[in-house]
Design goal:
Layout (H helix, E strand, L loop, with lengths): L1 E5 L10 H15 L3 E7 L6 E2 L2 E6 L10 H8 L4 E5 L4 H11 L3 E5 L6 H6 L1 H15 L5 E4 L2 H10 L6 E3 L16 E7 L8 H10 L5 E4 L5 H6 L5 E5 L3 H10 E6 L8 H8 L3 E4 L7 E3 L5 H12 L2 H15 L4 H22 L1
Parallel strand pairs: 1-2, 1-5, 2-4, 5-6, 6-7, 7-8, 9-10, 9-12, 10-11, 12-13, 13-14
Antiparallel strand pairs: 3-4
Length: 349
């Protein structure tokens, strides 16, 4: 099986966890015997990444929407196109239509009306309409990472019959709890309004005796550096062992996001044995909190902060739950989807 994978960025270029999932998808498909090539944007001199062959167009990611012919040329000798939202989906769909090739779209996240909070009324409304348009193209399959995202996509008009959920994956064996957890509440995300940075600051101000650590980068980084809260440590952007150790030592993970797909940092926290306080309708042990309600967030952090036995229990339950999010399970589900699509196309031919 030969699969052309398209995405607007590919490692080492990235803007968030989505690029790590895309790169992991390519690498593990190769390991499963699928011949993969990636078309993306970036430096054309980078022709591979960790063994994955890449072709990078030297254009801004928005201009990837105009790459229909390039995708079409590359896809001719492939069996299927695997694309990811946002700016690779439409040109990939159009190329697949011209060639009569099957296409699978994996939506890394669905934001809906949260675009208006992120971008303002004018730009946000345009982004929401674009998201709706992209997700409702008649792909052979639309893959979502959560049931909540699937409900949003179907609500937009995406095909119920052609949409399915595949849980994401991380290298869970690389994460685990430290021998002794520290009294710290960890926040790790791209630093922007969608991730709940304002709520984080409000909660930290309300709980001066609780120690918070922040990992990340983004447009709100200066705001965090200027906040000067004595109980909030801003560690900046870290990767590798230092990043994993922060998760390993933290007792509580706090993620007050307004909209997500399935954030990989949540899986890192679960695999590291953290109790979780979060807004996402996802399966974790901890406290599920409503979006934007800082009063409830303060109460949740205070309650878990005062109960180490409870956070230890929650952390162990999360660690065990995280073991199911393996690359083998994810890759097998994706390959099974490809085979099903190809068989359907074969029957129609």
């Amino acid at each position: 099986m030969r699969v052309l994978l398209t995405h607007e960025r590919f490692l080492p270029d990235f803007a968030g966890g989505g690029e790590h999932l895309v790169a992991g998808t390519a690498k593990h498909l190769l390991n499963a015997g699928v011949a993969v090539r990636v078309l993306t944007t970036g430096d054309p001199k980078l022709v591979s990444y960790e063994g994955v062959p890449t072709l990078r167009l030297p254009v801004h990611r928005y201009r990837f929407n105009l790459a229909v012919r390039r995708i079409e040329d590359l896809a001719r000798d492939h069996d299927l196109i695997q694309t990811f939202n946002y700016h690779a989906c439409l040109p990939s769909f159009l190329a697949a239509r011209r060639l009569g090739k099957p296409i699978v779209c994996l939506a890394l996240a669905v934001f809906g009306r949260t675009w208006l909070e992120m971008k303002g009324q004018l730009v946000g409304r345009a982004a929401a309409l674009w998201e709706r348009y992209v997700l409702t193209r008649p792909y052979d399959r639309l893959v979502l990472l959560t049931e909540h995202n699937r409900e949003l996509a179907v609500g937009f008009g995406a095909s119920t019959a052609r949409s399915l959920i595949i849980d994401p994956a991380v290298d869970v064996h690389e994460y685990g709890p430290a021998p002794e957890k520290e009294d710290v509440v960890l926040f790790s995300a791209k630093l922007e309004a969608r991730k709940g940075v304002e709520e984080l600051l409000d909660v930290a101000r309300a709980l001066p005796d609780v120690r918070f650590q922040v990992l990340g980068w983004g447009p709100d980084e200066d705001k965090l550096r200027r906040c000067a809260l004595p109980n909030l440590e801003f560690a900046g952007f870290e990767q590798g062992e230092r990043f994993r150790q922060r998760f390993a030592r933290a007792r509580i993970f706090f993620l007050p996001s307004r909209a997500e797909g399935f954030p990989l940092v949540l899986l890192y926290a679960m695999a590291s044995g953290c109790a979780v306080i979060g807004t996402l309708p996802l399966p974790f042990e901890g406290v599920h909190i409503p979006v934007g309600d800082t009063g409830i967030m303060v109460d949740a952090v205070r309650r878990l902060w005062m109960n180490r036995n409870e956070t230890d229990r929650m952390g162990e339950a999360n660690r065990q739950r995280a073991q199911q999010y393996t690359w083998e399970r994810y890759t097998n589900a994706l390959v099974a989807t490809y085979r099903e699509v190809l068989e359907e196309r074969g029957r129609k031919a």
